[in-house]
Amino acid sequence: MKNTTDKTFSALPPVTLTLDPLTGLLSRNSFLEQVRIRLDQDAPKDWCIATIDLEHFKLFNDWYGQEAGDRLLKNIADYLKRIQDCYHYTVGYFGNDDFFLFLPNDNGLIRLVFQTVCDYVQNQEQMEGFLPIVGVYPITDSERSVGTMCNYAQIAASTLKGKFSQRICYFEAAMVESLEKKQRVLHEINNGIPNGEFVFYLQPKCDSRTRKITSMEALVRWIHPKRGLISPNEFIPILEKSGLITRLDMYIWNSVCQTLRRWQDEHKPVVPISINISIIDIENIDVPRYLSSLTEQYHLDPKYLMAEITETAFAENNAAVKQTIDRLHKKGFTVLMDDFGSGYSSLNMLKDANIDILKLDMKFVEMNEENHNKGIQIMDSVISMAHRLNLLIVAEGVETSAQVSMLQSMNCLCVQGYYFYRPMPITDAEQLLSQTPIEDYHELRTSFAQQHNCEEYLVSYETLPSVSESITHILEENTLELARFNVITGEYVTIKKNPFLTDDAAGTVQNIHDYSHRLVDQGLIHPDDAEDYLLFMQPEHLQHLLLHKQTAVFYTVRRKVDGLYVRILIEFITGLACSENNPYVAVVRRVADDSD
Ligand code: C2E
Ligand code: CA
Ligand code: CA
Predict the structure, then answer these.
(1) Residue nearest to ligand 1 atom 7, measured at CA
(2) CA separation, residue 531 to residues 5, 526, 556, 572 (Å)
């Protein structure tokens, strides 16, 4: 529809302008022309192109109807037209929810416009979710085409989508580069999948004492025709943002099942393989159903496919993740929680999540001095929890022998990391499996439970929800002290200590005999319990109890905590087989409860 509107735009030269029928604002072409004319004639200094975009406007229309949507656009347009007429700005409407302004590049002014548009949105529907975002392109080179300037303003705005804290963004040249790079990568990946450029490597998980392999993890690799091997950190985040990750993941899961099938057909040794599942996959497709269709197609027992879901996924979409886990269980798959400990603050989310295995990343343990104690605390809580609930822990990212001994003393059986094996191509993994003993993962779980005399904690999927409530309880429970005890030498190393325990500092190396006597001498053990306590703590007695045994030993005693005597439980937790070669035992002291 064409209108001659030179009356309204008194500052503009009399040319034919196209107005948008709904809003009465300049349409795209007329806006571009008008801004060009003003830049050429008036050459205003320090002006900018700003775009206003109503995030989720399509949803707004769906919820409130087209009429309400149109009314909102009209109200905003009327306001923008008023400021255009008063201050000689130029305003255009490009359709959908896209408004453009040519106005002075003044931060205060842009904020004011933004705030006013916000008020219009909220006046109409009191909806927080539909707040506008503003992208600004400051005009540094007025020769540039106005269309490009508008694109740049939109690129700046697009970086804000989904970020609720920041609503105005200024364009920077790097944004175009990163956008172009992303687009290029997405295009290359789309072509690369059918070209067979994506493969997976396998990284074994093993028993740290025997090096026997229990399972492997499939980690995707991009063998780029020009750039060679590319690590997933370079392309997974881009794929997740664009939703394309699911296409790649389905392809990888399929290849994993194909490999498992081939191993069985060729009578090669087979271990379960775990695959990584992104939260985007859970939102995009029915993951349990798809995996189940794969195991049917390849005639695989579902016990050979395990699912790794990151702890952060729980925070992002708790309900969907929980439902997915339940359904994976029903179909016979084992579920691992990946990167456990990275989101320590969201422990509550674990409450009803029926996971089978926790993967604890050593990155959270071995960081700088500052984070170290937090890491140890996490391990302390997690390991004591796992011992109770028959949850297996896999420590990942294990790189040093010090970490290995620490984990062994805490009886953390299963490990994965460069110290043992790096991720490797499938053929190398096949060769390794043909030369290295395999430990049946499912038997390992059962023997683990028996070894700790904790059959009563053996849980089935049906009973897990109630049991997992105690996960939170145990994790939040106050462990007073965590230590490592050498059964042969009597050496006692405190790893972590609650500040309420007013004796030696954490990290102290001492002999258990001296340590027990000092507690008694300082009156920290109740006088009535002292004699029995010293007898129990005699190094020879402990050696007799623990060496060559595979059971945990418990002892309760009244000990002064923060000035008061309270009953505390001391647990000695042995390794797979406590022996002269493996003399380390984890010692946990905590406040006893009624069941102890
Ligand atoms: P993740 O699942 O936590 O995998 C562990 C990462 O740590 C892997 O990196 C592995 O190579 C690396 N790693 C293993 N042992 C050590 C060690 O001792 N020290 C150190 N510093 N690193 C170690 P990678 O293969 O680069 O994968 C990175 C992440 O990309 C994975 O983290 C996972 O979140 C994601 N990813 C990998 N493959 C897939 C996939 O097929 N699908 C999806 N959705 N995500 C994947
Ligand atoms: Ca993983
Ligand atoms: Ca991990």
Answers:
(1) 397
(2) 101, 10, 13, 20
